[in-house]
Amino acid sequence: MKTCCSLFVVALFLQTGAQQNPYFNTRNSPPAPSITCPEKTGRFATSQCDAYIECEDGKGEEKLCPDGLLFNPALGIYHQPCQYPVEVDCSGREATQPPQSTEECPHRYGYFRIGDAANCGQFKNCVDGRAYVFDCPEGLAFDEQSLRCDWPDQVSSCDAEAYLGFTCPPGAARGDFDDNSYTTFRSADCHHYYICVNSRPRLYNCGKGRAFNELINACDGAENVTGCASATERPHYTTNALRF
Q1: I need a labelling partner for 61 at 20 to 30 A (CA). Which of 2, 7, 72, 106 fits?
Q2: Contact by Cβ (8 Å): 142, 185
Q3: Bridge pairing between strands 183-186 and 192-197
Q4: 225/216 Cα distance (integer angstroms)
Q5: CA-angle at 78, arms to 76 and 81, nearest 5°
């Protein structure tokens, strides 16, 4: 009799617990929403630019790109689905996940300029929140819009005159470089010179053993330029991969 009563009490406890504990009773829980696949196999955009749906044999799974990368629906199934923002059109799906910034990087992945408008020749490549620093080739500036090093006068966030330390004088060529409408100026050392394009400066290097000859308005052997035969060439910027 005691055993029978004990079983009754246990059964009553289990029934009561099932009614009160939502984790215990799953019979009345709403089913997980199914993911609709536009096609049986493929990757498909959502309303969020760094998210996508991956479908295989009609079964869909929501996925999220690493922070700083965006889903590119134009890529095929055999390509990596997430790319840098400059390569992806987010029209109509501009929302993204909150940034996962670190001490070194504003996003876990991406390329970012270092310095202000007067120091625009460096950038960092962030990989999983770790930053690696690079220098643009000499005389070039990093463009965050294209993720490339370009002439500083072509980079909107760079002050070419402050960065290069040279301002084209009044009357310098205002034409287009492609039309050979430009003016050259020798720099403070023998090996470099400036070209003014649309009244904006660009820095050039004649190379080792050569110097800019104002008499011919071109690079020449250093021995042919007065005062440059024994001049020491200014060091180039080099591309480095340095950790912070």
Answers
A1: 106
A2: no
A3: antiparallel
A4: 10
A5: 65
Cα–Cα distance list, 181 to 112, 155, 166, 174, 236 (Å): 34, 21, 19, 7, 27
Residues in the chain, overall count:
244
Rg (C-alpha) for the chain, rounded Å, is: 31
Own/partner pairs, 83-86, CB within 8 angstroms, 24+ separation? 84/109, 84/110, 84/111, 84/147, 85/110, 86/145, 86/146, 86/147
Q: What residues in the chain have per-residue pLDDT under 70?
A: 1-33, 172-182, 231-244
Burial (CB < 10 A; 0-12, 13-18, 19+), residue 244, is: exposed
Claim to verify: residue 45 and residue 77 sit in the same structural domain: yes
DSSP state of 203: E
The model's pTM is 0.72
CATH number of the domain enclosing 60: 2.170.140.10
Q: How far apart are CA 106 and CA 93, in angstroms?
A: 21
Task: Provide the terminal-to-terminal Cα distance of the chain, rounded to the nearest Å.
Answer: 76
Predicted local distance difference test score (pLDDT) of residue 90:
95
- DSSP string of 32-84, one letter each residue: PPPPPPSSSSEEEE-SBTTEEEEEETTEEEEEEPPTT-EE-TTS-TTS-SEE-
